[in-house]
Amino acid sequence: MNIKILLLIATIVALTPVILIKQYTKTQNKNLLIVVAILYFILAYTYIQIFRVSEVSKSYSLLQVLQILLVVILGTLLFNEKITQNKIIGFVASMIAVYYLMK
User: Fold this and answer.
1) Alpha helices of the chain — where are they, by DSSP H?
2) Within its chain, how far is the Cα of 82 from the centroid?
3) Which among 87, 86, 70, 80 has a CA at the least distance from the CA of 10?
4) Is the Cβ–Cβ distance between 98 and 62 less than 8 Å?
């Protein structure tokens, strides 16, 4: 499978449990925890596939940066969290990091 598709899947699968855990803190719905456990299993499998075809230092670092960027965006959109000057600076720095990681 294409590495870019695997990275996208891993990023989405890694972020979904964070959103579900946040939702669990509001609803106490235990079914959300079951879904979280399944998603973490899928994430581990996806990481294995990524690390078979890519350098760990490059791909895992890129995954972490992408996840941070998406968490900030989703936190703002889904949970009405405020965008601060520090978040904007961090966002820009993350974009620069992604650029250099992909070189």
Assistant:
1) 3-27, 30-53, 56-79, 85-102
2) 19
3) 70
4) yes
Could you read off the pLDDT of 12-70 as tens digits, one per residue? 888 888 889 988 998 999 999 999 999 999 999 999 998 888 888 788 888 888 888 88
Half-sphere exposure for 55 (CA within 13 Å, toward CB)? 6
Q: Who contacts 68 (Cβ-Cβ below 8 Å, separation ≥6)? A: 90, 94
Instruction: Give the span between the Cα atoms of 26 and 83, in whole angstroms.
Output: 22
Cα–Cα distance for residue pair 71/61, rounded to 1 Å? 15
